[in-house]
Structure formats: C-alpha cells, structure tokens
Amino acid sequence: MALQTSGAISLNQIHTEAGGTSGTQASLNDSDIRGLTPGSGRIINSTLGSEIDFGDFYGATNDPRVTFPVSGSASTGNRTLNAGYYAISGIISFSFFGYGSGSVGSLSNASWGGTTIVELTNNPPLFGGGSTITLRINTAVFNSVWSTLTIYHFLSNGGPPNPVVLSRASASYSYNPLQTFWTWNIDTTYGLTWPNSQILSNGSRNTAFLGTHAHTFSLS
Predict the structure, then answer these.
(1) Pairing of strands 106-107, 79-88
(2) pTM of structure
(3) Full DSSP string of 152-215
(4) Predicted confidence (pLDDT) per residue in 179-197, tens digit
C-alpha cells in the first residue's frame, strides 16, 4: 500500500512501507528505504549518504510494478516469432519450443511499448503438469491494460485452433522486481495432451531437429 501523498509523514510509516517492523530503528539512509518506488512526480535518491527529504516519500511504495505501457499501435501490431528448439540436458522428450528459453529462436520488434518481451515459449509437461504457454517481459507490471494474447500457428491438425486466443484473465500471473510472467495451461484450455497441445514449433510436433519456423502473435 503506497504512502500518503500529502500531510504529515513519519519515518516509522516509511520504514513500515519498506518492509520494516513498526517501532524498530530506522533511518532515511537505509538501503531498503531508499529503494522504495517513488510516487508520481517524486524522486528518491538511492545513493546512500546523499541528500534526501521526508517529502520525497509522498506516494512511495515497495511494490515495484508499473502500468504495462502498451498503447496504440504498439498493442495492435503483430510480432514475428522464430520458434526454435531447446532440450534440457539433451533429453529429447523434455524440449521447449519458442523464443527466450536459453538461446532459442528470435523475435522481431521485441520492444513493446517500451517493455521488452524476453520469453514466449511453448513448454511440454515435465513433471505431471500440462503443457504451457509462457509470456515473460523484463518489467514488473500490474496484471492489467492488455486483454488478449493471440498466437498464429500452423499445427492445427489434431491440435488447438488457429489462431490460439488466450485471455490475460485466465493466465497464471506472477512477478518479481525485474520481470512479469503470464502462463496458460494449454491442455486445460483445449482439452488436449502433449504433443497435440503444442503450438509453437520448429516444423512439426514434438521434434528435436534444429532450425526455426516463423509464427506471428499479438497483444491487444
């Protein structure tokens, strides 16, 4: 919960927002306090020993997330994904198809509204779970703004429809201070099992051959 934006503000309130225990010792020079995300129009100098003021902490929060900066043409244009293959320790049946797992594939226009897409992968069920699609970006964002991930593919025979349309609201959402993840269970969504639930591929379902195959996808 963010700190208030006006009125009296105490060191104890700031310390608590930073994750400290109320009533315990703290100073404005503590790294966790200086590491708070500043409120709108505010700057918190993170350099220890530098000048800082109580007013700098108006609206500050320990939540690192920002609003996903997708808008206008950035959200509606398709991006091209060259799906490749990656095996865990050379075990062929445990393979990933997509962009972002290890050095798999490539992605044109990886920047989306100022945010970099660092992973879009189609993963097989490894330890009893279903096959999944994972979208990962390099910014901590709120689970809002965009609504749909649409993936165009060529593996429709016996598998999901083309395109696959995945709702943000139905994804498993998580984040850390550096990135955000959305994951969908394709088996559950379409009532299929691997490899029929595979979407991204380097040419055919559940193969371990090198190479890439172009797909397109969009966020809207």
Answers:
(1) antiparallel
(2) 0.81
(3) E-S--TTS--SSEEEEGGGSEEEEETTEEEEEEEHHHHHT--TTTT----SSSTT------EEE
(4) 999 999 999 999 998 889 9
